[in-house]
Amino acid sequence: MKNFTNLALGAALAVGLAGAAAAEGLYTPNLSYRTGPFAATGIPLMNGQKDYMEMLNARDGGIGGIKIDFDECETGYSTEKGVECYEKTKEKAIVTQPWSTGITLQVLPKTNVDKIPILAPGYGFSPMADGKVFQWAYNMPGSYWDAASMILTELGGGDQAGLNGKKIAFLHLDHPYGKEPLPYLESKAAEHGFELLPIPVGLKEMQNQSAQWLQIRRERPDYVIMWGWGAMNAGAINEAVKTKYPMDQFVGVWWSGHSDDLQAVGDAGKGYRSISYSMPQPDAPVMSDIRKHVFDAGNSLAAEEELNEVFYQRGLVISMILAEGITAAQANFGSPEINAEQLRWGLENVDITEARLAELGMTGMVAPFSTSCADHTGHSGAWMLQWDGNAFVQASDHLTPDTAAISALEAEKAAAYAADNAPWPINEECSG
Amino acid sequence: MLEQIFIAPFIDMIEAPDFLMQVLWEGLVSGILYALIALGFVLIFRSSRIFNFAQGIMVVFAALTLVGLYELGVPAWICVLLTLFVMFVLAIAIERIVLRPLVGQPDIILFMATIGITLFLIGFGEIIFGGENKIMITAELGIPTDSWVLEPFGGLLILEQKDVTAVAVAAMLVVGLLVFLNKTRMGRAIRALGDDHQAALSVGISLQTIWVLVWFIAGIIALVTGIAWGARAGVSFALEVIAYKALPVLMLGGLESITGAIIGGLMIGMLEKLFEIYWGQPLMGGNTETWFAFVLALIVLLFRPQGLFGEKIIERV
Amino acid sequence: MLYRTAGQFKTSYTSDQALFPVRQDAVLLMIILGFAFVILPMTASEFAFQTLLIPILIYSLAAMGLNILTGYAGQLSLGTGAFMGVGAYACYKMITLMPELNPVVAILLSGFFSAGIGVIFGIPSLRIKGFYLAIATLAAQFFLVWLFEKWGWLYNYNASGAIQVPNMDMFGITVGGPRAASITQYYVVLGVVTLLTMLCINLTRGNLGRTWKATRDMDIAAELIGINLMKSKLTAFAVSSYIIGVSGALFVFMWRGAAEPNLFDIPLSFRVLFIAIIGGLGSIMGNYLGAILIVGLPVVLNTVPEALGLDIKSSMVEHLNIMIIGSLIIFFLIIEPHGLARLWALIREKLIIWPFPH
Fold first, then answer.
1. How far apart are CA C146 and CA C140, in angstroms?
2. Residues A231, A234, A237, CA angle at the centre, nearest 5°?
3. Could you give the CA distance from residue C244 to residue C250 in angstroms, rounded to a whole number?
4. For residue B297, how many other CB atoms are within 10 A of its CB?
5. Are B305 and B285 contacting, i.e. CB atoms less than 8 angstroms apart?
6. Among residues 168-207 of chain A, which lie with CB inside 8 Å of chain C?
7. Which residues of B are less than 8 Å from A230 in CB distance?
8. Do B117 and C131 touch (CB under 8 A)?
9. Three-state secondary structure along chain C?
């Protein structure tokens, strides 16, 4: 019903503002999805992204004195709509935020020609980390392979070798997104001698995973790692509770850690863990700014209780990374007005230190990291969050991925991608 | 290879009978829900020859209305009544706006019109309720949420009480429906309309009333399905895809047969689960549930083109 | 006045049976072709190419394939998306196995693979009819999409399970892949679509087309007058699947640039079915009209709020879009169940006698 009031408000506002909507400033469209089966997890993230930019506009008048024109283009997680949005926005946009591994894969080869940077924080194609090959793509602060590596380390008790002889089920969405960590997991299974059991969940089975969980019950894996999204997360958690799978042996990627999905099972979900590159900090100074400039001003689409949740705050972090890229570019090129190519340079030179985080009022919300010409991921590391029956709480120290192994794999797969898509431009100027 | 196809699965079944029972139980629960959706299809098809693709979205819409009303602070049981009222209004609206102008058009046109209704309701529903996954108000409706853990053959069999409730309610609904169709005036009118349109009209049965009634019953079935399915995995628009699962049930059971819908649903629910667990997952990489039911139904249709319980198709030139 | 046919005398059967016996039709067609080949490419923006011109042509072709089967031969199919997928994957395999193959040849060849699969799934149509057949085609739809996901060989064991179009050259011009210019792709698509449209027009007017129509109108009667139903139905499946397969190959190689299996899932099938039905079953031109409406409308609707200066959330626009499309489908079905093509035919009738209707 809230949306209905929004509609009424929106319509009223629209009439009042007619003609004045063409905002000026840096155009940073977001290919959002607030509809469809994946909307459940998309909405809080997109609310966070939007609110951070609105806060900057209201508090500082934008970035470096220029307003941010943060616009959304609805995709419904459909690759087709996503590409349409990309085409529609690419003329003015200085960045594209595709929000789906499928859309990222489609847009990736076009960015070399269109010269627009892709910002896919914590998703997309893991080899994008290789900045020499993927000059226009960024997925800081961590890739899916980072996530898989940290999960394995944590499950192995601090060392992946501890997984020797174990059986790990990999419950994933049958979609490019879910398959993304497979190459890494397979290579590690061979290396450390654990058995990997991939269990795909089709897009139509997201809400009815009883077959998958019967398989888990039959195979009795020591751990279940989940790469779920949208309605799949809630479905899996429900089934896990139902089959009485021990929750503390069940770990999800960072997109499988949405509080709403666990709220449905409450205490029964206690012990479920999810890796996360962001950490909610309800008392961070930035939160009071968000409340003051956006939420209390009635410009937020988020609900009160959403503000302290993992996904909303991750949305803030994502927009912060973009804002830092813009700031870096502005400083380097000496002008507040930057274009897509300059932003590309900026995103390559993001340097988020503890001091900078404190300055932004976001201490602890993400781990410090920096990007470079060759490294477009930053590999910030992450934390384990654990469901305590009521909310996600920190359950581990700061973890770091096994960068050496990942970099080698990234370079290999990136080279293969470039070879498949020859002629592909490679930036030879970067040196490691 | 042959051994894996023809022998190994059966050895697995015998070695772990408790697991087999669990598989069959899960299949039965899904099957009941498929049967319910198929029942909605059959009722509408019998009385109006409309292949109502919107049944799936009606399930979502009913469940969302229920949860949405509850979120406004309305007591749970009043929500159920209000939702029924909403479904009634929806039935009237569909009859007035869509069906009445399309009377007598070819089947495919009516079918497309129901897809149009589906799209409309998706957009409309998302505007009103938003796209977030919602939690079904299971406990509030007095449905037990615990589970029974049995130990047959020294194994483990978990029966969710809400699934047991769903099976019981579905069974009662089916019995009620059969009584209604066979014993009441209205019910007999529905059947008469299904048997012969013109004859029914000529003895004074009102087409419009019956259509509203049938769509309303389909709405009630949608609500029950929505509650049962929503209790398992939450309510969101992703639920809409279960409508597809009702289609092979219809093929198998026959488009006109209520018994067919029920037996077809149960058969498909259990067989697809068995196939997935004992053949699909070990041999074919899993996820065979997306197509197994269709292929099974297709094979059955090759031998009986009107489905297992459908009326014999008599063609005249 | 403009459409007056008085004075156009036919002196031979050949001229009476010509494709366009009315001169104005031929002129109108020339104007449209002139637009499509010369004026539009010169004036269209990159956005128009990518979201309107190319997809409208490709969807029209897919709908035309479906229309052969459903509109002309009367066999309802809900599996169009999967057959488009067969074409796309066949094309992908050919291009990656034989990189020196001419892309257009590969696209035209890929249709044969989907034709083969189409015939296999068409066999049940000999026994199953009506809605039962429609649901049976869903078996093809779901099984094939599942196969695209599980059969690694099809996507060269790519980790993400998606296929990616490589850069493809033809006579020194890049026609496919990320480096191809939209205008080149547009011409390739336009060429193929024009060619296949001519093929379809002629097929449906010829012996085969009449056999199909007889099968559609009453198959038992058709059988009694000596039409071989098996041949008629299976050729319809083959021709239809061929065209759909080619459109699928164009869809991925000339427009999307990459594809994942669930792209070919049931929403795509429904979309093509909408186009065929809104356009008009049993009409070639209707496919274009339907595609313009179904593909073009959302794009236009998306730009309306901005053009009016309304500040509506993009998600709200999307919701309204879905609602409007749903309502329009119902609206068009109510005002003209035979589709836009019939609407045009009525207008044309009126124009012929205009301005003196009596």
1. 10
2. 145
3. 10
4. 27
5. no
6. 174-176, 179-180, 182-183, 200, 202-203
7. 238
8. no
9. CCCCCCCCCCCCHHHHCCCCCCHHHHHHHHHHHHHHHHHHHHHCCHHHHHHHHHHHHHHHHHHHHHHHHHHHCCCCCCCHHHHHHHHHHHHHHHHHHCCCCCHHHHHHHHHHHHHHHHHHHHHHHHCCCHHHHHHHHHHHHHHHHHHHHHCHHHHCCCCCCCEECCCEEECCEEEECCCCCHHHHHHHHHHHHHHHHHHHHHHHHCHHHHHHHHHHHCHHHHHHCCCCHHHHHHHHHHHHHHHHHHHHHHHHHHHHCEECHHHHCHHHHHHHHHHHHHHCCCCCHHHHHHHHHHHHHHHHHHHHHHHHCCCCCHHHHHHHHHHHHHHHHHHHHHHCCCCHHHHHHHHHHHHHHCCCCC
Widest pairwise Cα distance in chain B: 64
Within 10 angstroms of residue B139's Cβ, the number of other Cβ atoms is: 13
Span of B81-90, B270-279, B281-290 with lowest mean pLDDT? B281-290
Query: What token pair was written down for B29?
Result: 């629960």
With CA atoms as reference, report the closest residue to C162 among C172, C171, C152, C176: C152
Spatial distance between the Cα atoms of B95 and C177, rounded to a whole number of angstroms: 49
Is there a contact between A42 and A33 (Cβ–Cβ < 8 Å)?
yes
- Contact across the interface for A176 and C299, Cβ inside 8 Å: no
A223: three-class secondary structure by DSSP: strand
Residue type, B258: I
Please classify residue C322 by burial: count the beta carbons closer than 10 Å to its beta carbon, then call 0-12 exposed, 13-18 middle and 19+ buried. Answer: buried
Sequence letter at residue A269: G
**Complex ipTM:** 0.87
Integer Cα distance of A400 and A214 in angstroms: 34
Note the pTM of the prediction, 2 decimals: 0.87
Residues with Cβ < 8 Å from B171, sequence gap 6 or more? B32
Longest dimension (CA), chain A: 66
A406 burial type by CB count under 10 A (0-12 exposed, 13-18 middle, 19+ buried):
buried
Confirm or reject contact between B208 and chain A (CB < 8 A): no
Angle at which helix B17-48 crosses helix B185-195, to 10 degrees, equals 80
pLDDT band at A431 (very low <50, low <70, confident <90, very high): low
Separation of alpha carbons A105 and C163, rounded Å: 10
Q: Where are the alpha helices (DSSP H) in A22-100?
A: 39-60, 79-89
Point out the residue among B122, B131, B294 whose CB comes nearest to the CB of C138: B294
Residue pLDDT, tens place only, B204-235: 888 888 888 888 888 998 998 888 888 876 78
- What DSSP element (H or E) covers B124? helix B107-129
Bridge partners (DSSP) of residue A386 are: A273, A393
Q: Do A35 and B126 touch (CB under 8 A)?
A: yes
| C26-33 contact pairs (CB < 8 A, 24+) | C33/C194
Q: How many CB atoms lie within 10 A of CB C147?
A: 17
Alpha-carbon span B116 to C86, nearest angstrom: 28
Name the residue facing C220 among B131, B306, B317 (closest C-beta).
Answer: B317
C330 touches chain B (CB under 8 A): yes
Number of C-alpha atoms within 13 angstroms, CB side, residue A309?
Answer: 26
- A275 φ, ψ to 5°? -80, 150
Other CB atoms closer than 10 Å to residue C146's CB: what's the count? Answer: 23
Instruction: Please name which of A316, A223, A310, A237 lies closest in space to residue A270, comparing C-alpha atoms.
Output: A237
Inter-chain CB proximity A71 and C314 less than 8 Å: yes
Q: Taking the CA atoms of chain A, what radius of gyration do you get in angstroms? A: 21
For range B4-32, the mean pLDDT: 85
Distances (CA, A) of C185 to A424, C33, C90: 20, 17, 19
Among B222-226, C313-317, C329-333, the minimum mean pLDDT is found in: C313-317
Q: Which tokens go with C80?
A: 């169009």
Distance CA A1, CA A3 (A): 5
